[in-house]
Amino acid sequence: MYTLLIVQMAVSGALMGLVYALIAYGFQLTFATSKSINFGQGELVMLSAFFSLTLIDVGLPYWLVVPGGMLFGVALGLFVERAGVRLALEQKSEGWILLTIILGLLGFSAAENIWGRDDRPFPTPIPSDPLHFFGIDVTPLELSVAIGVLTVMSLVELFKRKTLLGKAFEAVSADRDAAQLMGISATRTIQLSYGLSGLVAALAGILVAPITTVGPTMASALILKAFSVAVVAGLDSGFGIVLIGLFLGALESLTSFYLGSGWREAPGLILLILALAVRPNGVFGKASIRKV
Amino acid sequence: MKKTMLAALTMGVFSLHAYAADTVKIALTGPFTGGSAPMGVSMRDGAKLAIDEINRAGGIQVGGQKMKIEVIERDDEAKNERGALIAQELASMNDLAGVIGTVNTGVVLAGDKYFQEKGITKIITPAAGSASMTQWSKAGVKDLSIFRFSADDGIQASMVVEEAINRKLKKVAIIHDSTNYGVSGRDDLLNQIKLQGNKLQVVATEKFNIGDKDMTAQLLKSKVAGAQGILIWGIGPEMAAVSNGMAKLGMKMPLIGGWTLSMSNYIDNAGKNGNGTLMPQTFIEDPITPKARSFIDSYHKAYGVTRIPSPMSAAQGYDAVYVFAAAVKQAKSTDTHKIKEALEDLKEPVKGVIATWKHPYAKWDPANEQTHEAFRRAQVVMGMVQDGRVVFANQADRLRLMKNAGK
């Protein structure tokens, strides 16, 4: 009974952890090509979820809402790149940090004004009655999160490894200047990475919304955890991000069970501090050699 | 958007009249946006329905003159610091007749001292936290200008415990949010369990934060400890997460809690998992009396809805305005101090949608908060969520209210 309970807690937590991993993956995609991160990623998640909810409200079927929401995410990602990141990168400044934060804040106020501040349910055709596996309850919703996250991440990884465009992506992340000399447009590739990062943010929003409800603040808690996952895993390992996501999710859930629900946020922060102090490149990160 | 423009314009026109001193100036405050908005908006809209009715009939008879009611609205966003600012602003107006509103107990605690300092009459509704009134009795305030028009948590907690005992539960878990409201609710529950003879054993006490979506840990702890029912104190969205978590973990047991379980954002977010949830209610959106029917119909018509977001907040806002108006009439003045004195000794019964209010308040006695509390146990019934609406949990209550109305 008791072990079963622990497994139940760990599984529930780990499935949520996959959402952290997906958002963290969005960080990773843009960091690989441009060494920049969209600090408004959480707002991207939230705006895409709201947009998808609007599509549902106008009567679109769920299976069109998902790609619709993801396209919207891509558009937002491209917009962030154009409006916030490219200028800063061209000037070789760190301005993208502030600019992405500001764009995020703008997105937040826009959402409040367009959709209001209430949390709203996100209807989905996926049933919420639990399934039982060896005494553990899992809802089809949670499973859909896991399947969605893993599918999209594998597809993006395949794209990066198997297609020409993907190779360009890899080349730019390995050495931007060398890639540029070889005739690969770094700007295009960074654009692509922002588009993809918007896509995974939107998917995260659509998958998690039926569980968390949709509201302007829906992603603020997720984003901090995703950031921890990205840093702890290292900003260049897709596989590592999934593992750390699962681990952090399970750990949070067990912490809140053993230490009390007030401590739920602690593991993510402690891991983040530990990682920054002990292994700044992350558990799965490659130590990069900096030539001076 | 058009509506707000229109409202802004009308407000503009009204404020031109303000200097003419032929209006009764009432402020309505509450959260009109955010997680508590269903309560705030319903309260405001219910109150404005009453105000419109009074104004259409020419206004309140104040001495020899009929005066219309002028409304000042302030959105506190359920934020304590905003509530305090609004209270300071309103308290600095010297022609304000009174204030009606406030949903969140924290906001009451942050703001009401400014009203009390200036002696401005305020009727709190629908905030139910015990501390809103006990703060004055504890401080030994001799003369209080704050009244309450809602079933306080004491009454509610006693009903929740009673219901759990009636349902033959032996072991319960208490789950509450970590705000002032949730913590004082937990204390009220524990206190009531003691008062009602310790027939319930509390096997787990768990809390959650505003915004939490995953309640698995709290629920599993309760389940492992052998809880047969969950007593809960919080607001809509998080309680919906508890309800959904219970469904996921296959915890088919009663969920009983404060009246906030009737908020639309609980009912909507919990969906079918919310069915069977029990909570005390002062008003149920069921046209059992002609008065209730006309109130529900006019609310639906005026605001273009088929369901009031928080029916009891709306009904309380509506009745509170009538009680206040009766006090203005009796005081024959728009002076807030005189209105306070009239409220403490209302001569004429006020016919409201919840009940006919006979002498709802008495002279404030710091030893007995009930002097400034309008509701007694008899005005409150048990409600139950069923398919997206709140219905009477017990037919007996429904029949009793219908009979009372017939008298």
TrEMBL record, chain A:
Membrane topology reported for the UniProt record: Multi-pass membrane protein
Subcellular location: Cell membrane
Positions of transmembrane segments: 6-27, 62-81, 93-111, 131-156, 192-211
Keywords associated with the record: Amino-acid transport, Cell membrane, Membrane, Transmembrane, Transmembrane helix, Transport
InterPro entries noted in UniProt: ABC_transp_permease (IPR001851), BCAA_transport_permease (IPR052157)
CDD domains to which the protein is assigned, alphabetical: TM_PBP1_LivH_like (cd06582)
Family: Belongs to the binding-protein-dependent transport system permease family. LivHM subfamily.
Identification of the protein by name: Branched-chain amino acid ABC transporter permease
Species: Thiobacillus sedimenti
From TrEMBL, chain B:
Domain of life: Bacteria
Species whose genome carries this gene: Thiobacillus sedimenti
Xref: PANTHER family: LEUCINE-SPECIFIC-BINDING PROTEIN (PTHR30483), PERIPLASMIC BINDING PROTEIN OF ABC TRANSPORTER FOR NATURAL AMINO ACIDS (PTHR30483:SF6)
Pfam families named among the record's database cross-references: Peripla_BP_6
Domain Leucine-binding protein, first and last residues per copy: 23-357
Family according to the record: Belongs to the leucine-binding protein family.
The entry's keywords: Amino-acid transport, Signal, Transport
Annotated signal peptide: 1-20
Protein name in the entry: ABC transporter substrate-binding protein
InterPro entries assigned: BCAA_transport, Leu-bd, Leu_Ile_Val-bd, Peripla_BP_I
Keyword Secreted: no
Keyword Transport tagged: yes
